[in-house]
Design goal:
This protein is an alpha+beta fold. 32% of the residues lie in helices and 24% in strands.
Length: 355
């Protein structure tokens, strides 16, 4: 069996590692204050990011060439997959694991002590996520689930200015994805902010946007609220998932990266190669640039990004350790930006480096 794998926190990242460790024949202990909690967020990913072992039954919808709107309409040359959240959770089975309903309070790479005084030793994976902090940029969103009848195609990111916000206010975009053959999620999203837009602001913007587009709400629609940090994760010391820096600061996505890296973690391999660490640093620089953009220029920035060739978009969005591809994508983006935005990007990145 080898050294026991001890997973602290069993959200998607921790549960994926525990599941793959069990599949590899390892002894597994999972520690979580609420191990039976049901996942409720909506998760999605690019299909080409996902590992081959993932159960095909976790798919709620797959969309070829989803749409992005910035200044103009763009079709993204990739397939986008929306998970059936309940199916994803149940597919990552923990049969055979020792489950401890407790809170890990002292965690290092070889041992864990819980609030209840229990100590376990082994290969520790810390997947407890990230705590909120005023120092960390966050993503926030407010969404409603409505009947899927004659609605727009999947909108990966829609920056059109019909949500009632002033052009000089912090911006938000519409995210619209099918959750089933019968329902669609409309979600007004603040990509990143310090502080991020409050849920009430996003709710008003979403209601305004849908009203303008002729989509009537009854007030009885199921609601999804989102708030989580997009920065602050640190590779190393057994951390994994958002805690280990796998959240992409430009999108907030981390589930696909965690699923893809789970086998590497179980085998004791290096997720954070030197190239991956360099890519993460470049992505953090990209987040600083986005946070520094004047609100009315954000759609222009994304117009430039979605105008890049598909392979460069993929390198930046999904290339965890593709340093060459990430540099090429960022270089092409910088070259195509209007001069005033190039100055903003340089100032934000150089200024942060000097602090």
């Amino acid at each position: 069996m080898g050294v026991e794998v001890i997973v602290c926190g069993i959200g998607p990242a921790g549960r994926a590692v525990a599941h793959r460790a069990l599949a590899a024949g390892r002894d597994v202990t999972v520690i979580d204050p609420r191990p039976d909690r049901v996942w409720t967020p909506t998760y999605a990913a690019w299909v080409d990011e996902l590992p081959g072992w993932l159960d095909a039954g976790v798919v709620a919808a797959a969309i070829d060439e989803p749409t992005a709107w910035a200044v103009r309409e763009h079709r993204i040359d990739r397939t986008y997959q929306v998970f059936d959240t309940a199916a994803l959770q149940s597919s990552l089975t923990l049969h055979g694991a020792t489950v401890i309903a407790d809170r890990a309070v002292e965690v290092n790479t070889r041992s864990v002590r819980t609030a209840g005084g229990l100590t376990r030793t082994g290969q520790v994976v810390d997947a407890r996520g990230l705590a909120r902090s005023p120092r960390r940029a966050e993503q926030t969103a407010y969404g409603v689930v409505v009947d899927r009848t004659g609605l727009e195609p999947t909108l990966f990111m829609d920056w059109r200015a019909d949500n009632g916000a002033d052009p000089d206010e912090p911006p938000s975009f519409l995210y619209a994805i099918p959750l089933s053959p019968d329902t669609v999620l409309f979600e007004e999203t603040c990509l990143a902010g310090r502080p991020a837009l409050a849920p009430d602001v996003l709710r008003r913007r979403l209601e305004h946007r849908l009203r303008v587009r002729g989509i009537a709400l009854t007030g009885a629609e199921p609601v999804e609220r989102v708030r989580f940090p997009v920065q602050g994760g640190m590779p190393g010391r057994g951390r994994f998932g958002a805690a280990g820096g796998l959240t992409h600061p430009a999108t907030g996505y981390s589930v696909a990266a965690a699923l893809a890296a789970a086998d590497t973690v179980v085998a004791g391999g290096a997720v954070w190669t030197p190239s991956a660490r360099a890519v993460a640093a470049l992505r953090r620089a990209g987040l600083r640039a986005v946070l520094a953009l004047p609100p009315r220029e954000v759609p222009v920035f994304f117009e430039t990004f979605f105008g890049l060739p598909a392979h460069l978009q993929r390198c930046y969005l999904s290339g965890l350790d593709d340093l060459g591809g990430t540099l090429a994508a960022m270089g092409a983006l910088f070259a195509d930006l209007p001069p005033n935005l190039r100055r903003t990007v340089v100032t934000s990145v150089v200024g942060a480096a000097r602090r």
